[in-house]
């Protein structure tokens, strides 16, 4: 496992007397020990899935069937399965595993490993960042790797009579960072529409990069795609202002080999050429979109003094970064990039977690808005209002209001970048079956006491969903304690590796 991953968010350890009181019924009915083993197995998952069912094994030679597992023997007749949520605000334990899998995927695509050859490290690669354009002035620290400066030292007032500037130096934890200077001047509708089309804009940028590669090498685009492949993995991050931006790794591979083989690209395909083509594409890529400014979307019923220009296409902002990747030495090593991207995949849209799930009803919308800052609440409202317009009906803006219009996945990759999350989970399950809790190897046995062999037995599983979460309050307190213990073990292991 990686040595530089980020610890899960700390949760307060329950008071021991209260814990013993809450678990008294489990101790009394004799299910405490079995339940505690289950909770430790899921690392104190905050919202586990409770399943009921059985596992049988059939001997392929004799046809005999024997039962190897029955959840009826467990507390409450169910087995706990981790929720697998990626958000640290929802489940710190599962988000830690998710970030670890993301690290493995990113790192394997840069340095090899996990059935990917080490020669992948010699392929040309870039670390890129693309951001949204400006939709209006917002509060910021303006640090730029130095001391923080005055937020916006501009005189005068906006058309709504509010100051155009802010003469404060905001601390890091200031909740005003990212908030518009004037909420009524801010282009809320334009921002949520841009978020909705950001994923398609990325696809168009990749296509334009191929087109530029073909032009600069005097080849057709079809021939270029047959010779070289742009493999990538990207992570989306929601900025405090409510706009999505992407951090990504781009890599050039040979396209003549089929999936599962990673041959180096032709000699003419260099990192410098890829960087030049990528910058060219970022400046010119655009994704057509319906104009959100055709309709008046007032903020807090305050009309806009001057009409906004039409927005007929989504484009990238001026702030973009393109840097080459280095495997040996330098700042952007595979481990560093893996840590950087894995940190963002567990983030929520807001730090409060108020938008961690979809908003499904108007009553739910009203409740959520009370928990959000003003500019975040207005972005959610703008998404719902646009959903009522005919030319936005197919975009489902109300379904993605909890993500300010963004409908893409928070981590995506091309098929040939590296391994997959499913492969990482399968390796983890295999390790759990072939090792004890202390890490010692063991041989799993089938129902007849023989070493498990898929050619000898067929496994038949039947599961039924029972519920989500813990059945009792005391069970949840036990999970909190197990999660804290798992976090402490991870921190101790990481400290030991760093000092070794």
Explain this structure to me?
With 500 residues, the chain is of the alpha+beta class. The chain folds into two domains: 16-91 and 432-499, no CATH class; 117-138 and 178-413, no CATH class. The chain contains twelve helices and eleven strands. The strands form three sheets. The protein has a five-stranded antiparallel β-sheet with strand order 9-4-6-5-10, sandwiched between helices. A hairpin with a 5-residue loop joins strand 1 (49-59) and strand 2. Helix 3 packs across helix 12, helix 5 (188-216) packs across helix 7 (271-284) and helix 5 crosses helix 10 (374-386). The longest helix is centred in the middle third of the chain and has 29 residues, at 188-216. The two termini are 15 Å apart.
Please tag this protein with its features.
disordered N terminus; 12 helices; 33% helix; 11 strands; 2 domains; five-stranded antiparallel beta sheet; four-stranded antiparallel beta sheet; 500 residues; alpha+beta
Please provide a brief summary of the model.
Helices cover 33% and strands 15% of the residues. It has 500 residues and is α+β, with helices and mostly antiparallel strands.
């Amino acid at each position: 496992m990686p040595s530089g991953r980020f610890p899960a968010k700390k949760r307060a350890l329950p008071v021991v007397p209260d814990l013993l009181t809450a678990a008294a019924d489990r101790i009394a009915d004799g299910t405490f020990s079995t339940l505690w083993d289950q909770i430790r197995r899921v690392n104190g998952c905050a919202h586990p899935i409770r399943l009921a069912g059985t596992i049988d094994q059939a001997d392929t030679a004799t046809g005999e069937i024997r039962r190897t597992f029955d959840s009826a023997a467990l507390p409450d007749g169910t087995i706990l399965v981790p929720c697998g949520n990626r958000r640290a605000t929802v489940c710190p334990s599962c988000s830690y595993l998710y970030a670890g899998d993301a690290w493995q995927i990113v790192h394997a695509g840069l340095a090899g490993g996990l059935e990917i050859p080490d020669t992948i490290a010699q392929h040309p690669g870039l670390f890129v960042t693309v951001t949204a354009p400006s939709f209006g002035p917002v509060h910021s620290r303006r640090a730029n790797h130095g001391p923080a400066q005055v937020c916006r030292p501009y005189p005068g007032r906006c058309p709504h009579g509010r100051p155009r500037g802010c003469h404060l130096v905001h601390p890091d934890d200031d909740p005003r960072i990212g908030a518009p200077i004037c909420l009524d001047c801010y282009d809320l509708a334009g921002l949520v529409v841009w978020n909705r089309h950001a994923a398609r804009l990325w696809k168009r940028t990749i296509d334009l990069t191929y087109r530029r590669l073909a032009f600069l090498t005097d080849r057709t685009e079809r021939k270029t795609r047959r010779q070289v492949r742009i493999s990538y993995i990207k992570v989306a991050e929601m900025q405090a202002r409510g706009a999505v931006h992407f951090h990504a790794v781009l890599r050039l591979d040979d396209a003549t080999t089929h999936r599962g083989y990673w041959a180096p690209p032709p000699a003419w395909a260099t990192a410098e050429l890829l960087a030049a083509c990528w910058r060219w594409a970022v400046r010119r890529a655009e994704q057509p979109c319906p104009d959100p400014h055709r309709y008046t979307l007032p903020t807090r019923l305050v009309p806009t003094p001057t009409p906004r220009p039409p927005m007929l296409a989504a484009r990238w902002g001026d702030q973009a970064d393109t840097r080459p990747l280095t495997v040996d030495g330098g700042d952007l090593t595979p481990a560093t990039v893996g840590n950087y991207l894995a940190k963002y995949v567990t983030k929520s849209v807001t730090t409060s977690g108020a938008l961690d799930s979809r908003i499904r009803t108007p009553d739910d919308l009203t409740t959520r808005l009370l928990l959000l800052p003003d500019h975040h609440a207005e972005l959610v409202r703008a998404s719902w209002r646009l959903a009522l317009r005919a030319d936005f009906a197919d975009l489902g803006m109300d379904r993605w209001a909890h993500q300010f219009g963004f409908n893409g996945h928070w981590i995506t990759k091309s098929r040939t970048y590296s391994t997959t999350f499913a492969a990482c989970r399968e390796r983890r399950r295999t390790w759990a079956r072939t090792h004890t809790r202390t890490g010692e190897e063991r041989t799993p046995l089938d129902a007849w006491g023989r070493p498990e062999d898929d050619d000898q037995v067929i496994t038949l599983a039947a599961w039924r969903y029972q519920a989500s979460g813990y059945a009792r309050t005391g069970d949840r307190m036990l999970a909190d304690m197990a999660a804290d213990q798992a976090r402490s073990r991870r921190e101790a292991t990481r400290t030991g590796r760093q000092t070794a």
